[in-house]
Design a protein that fits this description.
Its EC number is 2.7.7.6. It is an enzyme of class 2 (transferase). It catalyses: RNA(n) + a ribonucleoside 5'-triphosphate = RNA(n+1) + diphosphate. It contains five helices and no strands. It is about 65% helix and about 0% strand. The chain has two domains: about 70 residues, RNA polymerase subunit, RPB6/omega (Eukaryotic RPB6 RNA polymerase subunit), CATH 3.90.940; about 35 residues. It starts with a helix and ends in an 8-residue tail after the last helix. The radius of gyration is 35 Å and the shape is rod-shaped. Helix 1 crosses helix 3 and helix 2 crosses helix 3. It is an all-alpha fold.
Length: about 130
């Protein structure tokens, strides 16, 4: 890559990281068969892409939008319908209440056993 080409491109796209992304995207488009807007002059695709950016023969905004479109991934998720939420939450509340009742019963039986042991055990001997 010619230093002059990169320096010319930095005037058009000040952020070097963005320049690399845009030039790479354009070079891939050229490899896929996109028409050239400058003469190839026996240059490879990345150099041609940089020359196109430097000469402003490609729309940088359009190139940027195309790059963003290819990098975005849209994932469809099945989310519960708003009407189902109260029913689902009621089931969750009931489950949590059941857990709390079980924990309370376990704690009470443990306390009763400790109290019984502390008071001397069996009441059947009296």
């Amino acid at each position: 890559m010619a230093r002059v080409t990169v320096e010319d491109c930095v005037l058009k796209v000040p952020n070097r990281f963005e320049l690399v992304l845009l030039a790479g995207h354009r070079a891939r488009a050229i490899s896929a068969g996109a028409p050239l807007s400058v003469a190839r002059d026996n240059d490879k695709n990345p150099v041609v892409a940089l020359r196109e950016i430097a000469d402003e023969t490609v729309a940088i905004r359009g190139l940027r939008d195309s790059l963003i479109g290819t990098l975005q991934h849209h994932v469809e998720r099945d989310e519960p319908v708003e009407d189902d939420m109260p029913r689902l939450m009621a089931g969750q509340d009931a489950a949590m209440e059941g857990i709390a009742v079980d924990a309370y019963a376990d704690t009470m039986s443990d306390l009763a056993a400790e109290l019984d042991a502390a008071l001397g055990g069996d009441d059947d001997d009296e």
